[in-house]
Amino acid sequence: MEVFWRDGFEGASTETLRCAMGIRHAASFYRVFGDKRNLFFLAVEHYAATVGSAPIAALSQGKTADEAVAAMLASGAQLYTEKSSGIGCLIVSGAVNCTPENADVAEFLAAYRVTIQKKLVERLERAVADGELSRHTNIGAVAEFYASLLHGIAVRARDGAPGADLRAAVALAPRVSQLSACPADNFDTRSD
């Protein structure tokens, strides 16, 4: 997982992967995993179920949507800048620029990235149902805003932005309740 996290799908050679896992012979690698693509899919699934799950899990924290989203962003800033793990997010940067023959790898990660937005929508819908947010809140646009911010934090962490700077940026993010006060027609949700 760490090799893919550091080097991305296309940057990780099977030789580097074998060495990291202590597999001496290529035949053993292919017998166990089939190919690099299958190993990558397994690594992403493991990442998403373990360390990469922290920002989504943080959404269940907090009594309010404001607290939940703040916890998610803080968790992302912490995770993505932690030197003991990979820098950035495997799901965000593992296959950013794939060649056409690896488009399925990029699509696989894109499907995972949509998960955070779906979880945000669920949390915001609950806040509307509880009367915490206006029923006129453009939930899709607000979820898109925070998902984009979280993914941007991962990219900036990968670029070497200091954790303290990213945490300070997270603290500047508008509260959900502030965004929900904007009329829904202030958000253009049409695709380009």
UniProtKB/TrEMBL annotation:
<keyword id="KW-0805">Transcription regulation</keyword>
<keyword id="KW-0804">Transcription</keyword>
<protein>
    <recommendedName>
        <fullName>Tetracyclin repressor-like C-terminal domain-containing protein</fullName>
    </recommendedName>
</protein>
<dbReference type="InterPro" id="IPR011075">
    <property type="entry name" value="TetR_C"/>
</dbReference>
<dbReference type="InterPro" id="IPR009057">
    <property type="entry name" value="Homeodomain-like_sf"/>
</dbReference>
<dbReference type="InterPro" id="IPR036271">
    <property type="entry name" value="Tet_transcr_reg_TetR-rel_C_sf"/>
</dbReference>
<dbReference type="Pfam" id="PF16925">
    <property type="entry name" value="TetR_C_13"/>
</dbReference>
<feature type="domain" description="Tetracyclin repressor-like C-terminal">
    <location>
        <begin position="69"/>
        <end position="158"/>
    </location>
</feature>
